[in-house]
Structures are given as C-alpha cells and as structure tokens.
Amino acid sequence: MIEGKYIGLVGGGNMAEAIIKGLILSKICHPDQLLVSDIRPERLDYLNNKYGVRVFKENDVMVSKSDIVILAVKPQDIETAISEFRDALKDGTLIISIAAGINTAFLRQCLAKEMPIIRVMPNTAALALASMSVISKGPYATDRHLEMAETLFKAIGETLVLPEKMIDAVTALSGSGPAYVCLFIEGLADGGVKMGLSREVALKLAIQTVFGTGKLLKETGEHPTILKEMVASPGGTTIFGLHALENAGVKGALILAVEEATKRSRALGRR
Ligand SMILES: NC(=O)c1ccc[n+]([C@@H]2O[C@H](COP(=O)([O-])OP(=O)(O)OC[C@H]3O[C@@H](n4cnc5c(N)ncnc54)[C@H](OP(=O)(O)O)[C@@H]3O)[C@@H](O)[C@H]2O)c1
After folding, report:
1. How many angstroms is it from 57 CA to the middle of ligand 1?
2. Ligand 1: which of 74, 86, 110, 170 to mutate, most ligand atoms within 8 Å of CB?
3. Backbone angles phi, psi at 269, to 5 degrees
4. Tens of pLDDT, residue by residue, the chain (271 residues)
5. Do domains 7-167 and 175-268 have the same CATH topology?
C-alpha cells in the first residue's frame, strides 16, 4: 500500500483504466488516492462511477494535487497536455510517461524544469493485468523513484528495469509482441479450420495452447528448447509440424519482425 501519496493520471483512456483497475485490485492504493483528468467528460463520469476515483476536467487542477503524475495520453497529445499543467506541478512530483516513442529528453524539454522523470513501456496485455512493462530511469529520477514506478506497474503485470537506450528493441518485442502473437494464434486456428475443426473450437484450442505454454515456461523457468524437445518425440507428429515451420522460415521471420520494428521505433522516436 502506498500511503499518503496522490497519483494523478493525465488522460483517462484504455491504459489509464488498466492502471486504475490494477492499483485498486492489488490494494496498492485506495480509490481516493487516484486522480484522473481527461478532455472527455463521459470518460471521467465512467471512471468515477466504476472505480470511485476523483476526476477533473482541467489537467492543471489535477496535477496540483498529485505527488506522482502518469502521462497516459497519446504520444501526439503529450506536448499539449504538458503545456496545460506544467506550471501547476508541485516541486519534486514524479513524472511517469507511458507514451510510446516519447523519450525522457523530450519530456524534460517540455517540462522545462528539474522534475524526476521515468519512462515506462507497457503492452496491451495490461488490459488483462498481464502487461510486460519495461521501466527506464530518466533525468533527476533516483532509485527511490524507480522503486515507486515498479510498485505501481507491478499492479498491471510484470516489470523489468532497463536503460532507456533499450526501449526501441523493447517496443519492437513486448510492445508490438501482442500483435505477432495474435497473428500466430490466427494461423494455428486457420490450420485447425483447414483440417475440419469449427472456427470456434480451433480458436479456443489455439488461444489456450499459447496461454498455457507461456504459463508453463514462466512457472518452470525452463528454456523453450527443452520444452519443445519434450513435445517432439522421435518420428511423431510434432517434429513433422516443426519441420514445416522451419521450412517456412517462421523463426527467421520473427527475428526479422523484431529487427524491422526496432528500426521503425528508432525512426519514429523523438530523441
Ligand atoms: N494501448 C496500448 O497497448 C499501449 C501500449 C504501450 C503504451 N501505450 C501508450 O499509452 C498511452 C495511452 O494510450 P491509450 O491507448 O490508453 O490511449 P486512449 O485510450 O486514446 O486514451 C487517451 C485519453 O486521453 C485523452 N486526451 C487527449 N488529449 C488530452 C489532454 N490534453 N489532456 C487530457 N486528456 C487528453 C483522450 O481523449 P481523445 O480520445 O478525445 O483524444 C483519451 O480519452 C499512449 O501514449 C500510448 O503510446 C499504449
């Protein structure tokens, strides 16, 4: 439980809702400690009714009451949002940004004062409280700030601390990863349909197989190669399937996907 601190979210969209839900469910803070501002009144009403958080139409009024401010607007709205609340920030307020592609040097420039800044790259699985969130320390942030960010983001899944220079690769792997996994699931399900399974059954089998394998790898800590070899018995069905995948270059395509997405992230990023 975080005692006596107020956590403000600028932007009350999908990611903000995931964070609010996670923090309340994990009892890291009380709904009274959560403040949200958004330009959409209907989002504020919804969040207030559903979670009991305090809501504000003006960003500056909200941040003036916050000890930690989480920037949860779209990357293109970051600069405007900061300009709306910058002068209302209390000294020492921790700024945490989850905006994809916005680096801490740019945030520091927009804030135009010495505020501790942390950058976090979560992924869409945050909506199921199963995010992989990578946390990077920015200007003026201390280890204490980093610990605070870890505590907050553990409420929506797993966290890992890495230097900011790794964030483009992180964006390409765990940030974009849910889309790659969806493509993989779609492919498995289409294969099942081709072999006569109903669409509904094929999709259920594919989703649970990916979920279960991830859970197994996580719980056992076993390397994927070991588990793969456990399933592929000599002359059995799996080794035939694996051969088909290797022939089609699936592993090479995944490596390339992360490489290309990293290059794109570098090109788009504000550095
Ligand atoms: N979704 C993901 O999987 C994911 C993963 C990693 C990182 N992120 C990052 O998380 C951030 C939020 O994403 P999201 O999907 O939650 O976005 P979202 O659902 O669009 O939420 C953003 C909210 O902020 C509002 N807003 C816009 N300008 C504002 C301002 N000046 N002041 C206050 N509120 C404002 C938006 O209103 P309007 O809709 O009217 O503009 C919207 O309600 C993004 O920066 C994104 O890069 C998202």
Report:
1. 15
2. 74
3. -65, 150
4. 888 999 999 999 999 999 999 999 999 999 999 999 999 999 999 999 999 999 999 999 999 999 999 999 999 999 999 999 999 999 999 999 999 999 999 999 999 999 999 999 999 999 999 999 999 999 999 999 999 999 999 999 999 999 999 999 999 999 999 999 999 999 999 999 999 999 999 999 999 999 999 999 999 999 999 999 999 999 999 999 999 999 999 999 999 999 999 999 999 875 4
5. no
Residues 7-167, CATH architecture: 3-Layer(aba) Sandwich (3.40)
157 lines ligand 1 (CB under 6 A): no
**Does 101 sit in the ligand 1 pocket, CB within 6 Å?**
no
pTM over 0.85: yes
State the distance from the centre of ligand 1 to the C-alpha of 71, rounded, in angstroms: 9
Give the residue, out of 17, 37, 39, with the most ligand 1 atoms within 8 A of its beta carbon, to mutate for a pocket test: 39
> Which residue among 10, 21, 36, 38 is best mutated to probe the pocket of ligand 1, counting the most ligand atoms within 8 A of its Cβ?
38
CATH topology of domain 175-268: ProC C-terminal domain-like fold (1.10.3730)
Q: Which two tokens stand for residue 125?
A: 């699985």
Domain ranges of the chain: 7-167, 175-268
CA 118 – CA 98 distance, rounded (Å): 9
